[in-house]
C-alpha cells in the first residue's frame, strides 16, 4: 500500500498544526495565517486563558495552557492535535527575551532564557518528530517543523548575549535536524527575524543597549514573520532571515566581531534616535 503524501500545498486541509507561545504577538500571527491556510490549529501558551481567547478569536480548534519547559507537556499537546487531524506543522515560537549583559542578568533570568528558548524548543522538536514518525508508520508521511529563531543568532549582539546564544543554538539544531529527518519526509525550518514590534521588544529596558541596537535595524510586524513561515512550508529551505540584507550584515559581523563592533556606539545612537522619533 502506498503511503499518502503529507506535503502541505497552499492549504493545510486535513492536517493539524501546533503553535507555541501563540496567545499574542508573533505566535498569534502565525496561528492566524495557518488557520487561513486551512490547518486545524492548536494555540498553546503558558497563559492558558489567553490561549483559549485567541483560539476563539482566530477560529483555531483549541487554545491550551502549555509550559514549554515541561517535557511531557509537548507530547500531550501533540496527542491533542492529532485528535483533530494528523499533525502537519509544529511551530516552536514560545520564547523569552530578558535583556542585559551576562553579568547583569539574574540567575532566574538566565534559567528562563535557557529553559524556554533552548530546552523548550528541544522538547518541542522531539515531540513533533515522534508524532510525525508515528503517523508515517500509519501511512501519513511528512510534515514541517518550524523554529522561530532570531537575527541575533547570526552574530554578536551586546546586551542580548545569552538570548542570542540560545537562538544560535536552536538555529544550529535546525540545520542538523533537517539532515537527520530528511528520510522521514520531515522538513525543518528556522526563521531569523530582525526586531519585531511585540511585547517582548517593548519589555526591554528603555535606555538599554539591546533595545537601541534592535531599533537600529528594521522593525518588523508579526504578520511579516507569519508570512515568512507560511512561505517555508512544504519547501526544502532551512533558513530564512528577515530582512535578507540584515542577515548578510550579521554574518559579516560574526566573521570579524572586533572591527564590526567598533560601530556599536553608532548603531546604538541610531536606534535611540529612531525610538525617540516614534514617541
Blueprint of the fold:
Layout: E1 4-5, E2 16-19, H1 25-36, E3 40-45, H2 48-58, E4 62-65, H3 71-84, E5 87-92, H4 107-137, E6 140-141, E7 143-148, H5 161-180, E8 186-193, H6 199-202, H7 209-215, H8 222-232, E9 239-242, H9 244-255, H10 257-260, H11 264-277
Parallel strand pairs: 1-6, 2-3, 2-5, 3-4, 5-7, 7-8, 8-9
Helix pairs in contact: 1-8, 3-4, 4-5, 7-11
Description:
With 279 residues, the protein is an alpha/beta fold. The chain has a single domain, classed as Rossmann fold (3-Layer(aba) Sandwich), CATH 3.40.50.720. It contains eleven helices and nine strands. α2 links the parallel β3 (40-45) and β4 (62-65). Belongs to the short-chain dehydrogenases/reductases (SDR) family. One of its GO terms (molecular function) is oxidoreductase activity. Keywords: Oxidoreductase.
Tag the structure with descriptive keywords.
single chain, 279 residues, alpha/beta, two-stranded parallel sheet, 50% helix, oxidoreductase, SDR_fam, NAD(P)-bd_dom_sf, SDR family NAD(P)-dependent oxidoreductase
- DSSP strand tally: 9
Q: Could you say which overall geometry the principal axes of the C-alpha atoms support? A: globular
Q: Please report the first level of CATH classification, the CATH class.
A: Alpha Beta
Kindly estimate the percentage of residues that lie in beta strands according to DSSP: 15-25%
How much helical structure, as a percent, in the residues?
A: 40-55%
CATH T-level fold name: Rossmann fold
Oligomer: single chain
Low-confidence stretches: 1-10, 262-279
**Rg result:** 19 Å
Give the N-to-C terminal Cα separation: 63 Å
Q: SS-based structural class? A: alpha/beta
Protein name: SDR family NAD(P)-dependent oxidoreductase
Pfam family, one: adh_short
Enzyme class: oxidoreductase
Organism: Pseudonocardia hispaniensis
